[in-house]
Amino acid sequence: MSQLAARGMACRRGERVVLDAVDIALERGAVTALVGPNGSGKTTLLRLLAGLDAPAAGQVVLDGQPLSTLDARVRAKRIAYLAQAAAVYWPLLGRDLVSLGRLPHGADLARPLAAADSAAVERALGRVDGTALAGRAIDTLSQGERARLMLARILATEAEVVLADEPAANLDPAYALDAMTVLRAEAARGAVVVVSLHDLGLAARFADRVIVLAGGRVAADGSASDALRPEVIDAAYGVGFRRVEVDGVAQVIAWSRRP
């Protein structure tokens, strides 16, 4: 099965080690959640997996080929990346923002979209309940409405790898559940899906695999029930967690601050 892999991945910011010797292989058809406290390296790892930053050591490999050897346009077509709290600095219409996801396929936004590109944009808008936002300027929308359109933009790319940094942030509970359901559907169509999450409940509910990062290293890697064991996340977050079960899904609740 094809995969995206990080091999011996390391990253530094000055003297600080952000990631240290991270080895992971990410398979198609599964949702992998990256969890861990602020500063644990989640965003850094996603940016390295997307080819946006270069590691201090190690490499990222897509289907056996080093990511660094791929043409930038090919990489943009194969890997869709949603930045955390991505900003838009000009008043694009919602549909135009989502249409940016078709640029790697050769779309020219100065001209009417081809039928295939237009259909992909409309599908993406529909999947995030964004059709009513398509004709509105981005600067008139709430932060949550913008977040839905940014998610639609990466869906419109129809990439084989989907990397999303906090895709449920700024969304109310209904749309957070919708966003994770959409990302599960991306995995079901055969994509590699990796999401960073602060919400451990969403990770337990929607992820096939959970990777816990702490101190720039992998503290746990496995199913949610294995990776989110209290003894693991207590140490990672410095918080005492309680474990409960809801509809057969193990959930962890931050309960007390550890001394």
Describe the structure.
With 259 residues, the protein is of the alpha/beta class. The chain has helices at 42-50, 72-78, 94-99, 115-127, 143-157, 173-188, 200-206, 224-227, 230-237, and strands spanning 3-13, 16-27, 30-35, 57-62, 65-66, 79-82, 161-165, 192-196, 209-214, 217-222, 239-246, 249-257. Helix 6 (173-188) links the parallel strand 7 (161-165) and strand 8 (192-196). The radius of gyration is 18 Å and the shape is globular. 43% of the residues are buried. The mean pLDDT is 92.
How would you concisely characterize the structure shown here?
With 259 residues, the protein is α/β, with parallel strands linked by helices. Helix content is 33%, strand content 31%.
- Extract low-pLDDT stretches: none
Please estimate the helix content: 25-40%
Give the CATH level 1 class: Alpha Beta
Number of helical regions: 9
Number of strands: 12
| Number of domains as seen in the coordinates | 1
Mean pLDDT: 92
β-strand percent reads 25-35%
Biggest pleated sheet: 6 strands, mixed
Shape: globular
Give the terminus-to-terminus CA distance: 45 Å
Report the C-alpha radius of gyration, rounded: 18 Å
Named CATH topology: Rossmann fold
**Major sheet: arrangement of strands:** 6-7-8-3-9-10
What structural category characterises the helix and strand content?
alpha/beta
Order of helices and strands: EEEHEEHEHHHEHEHEEHHEE
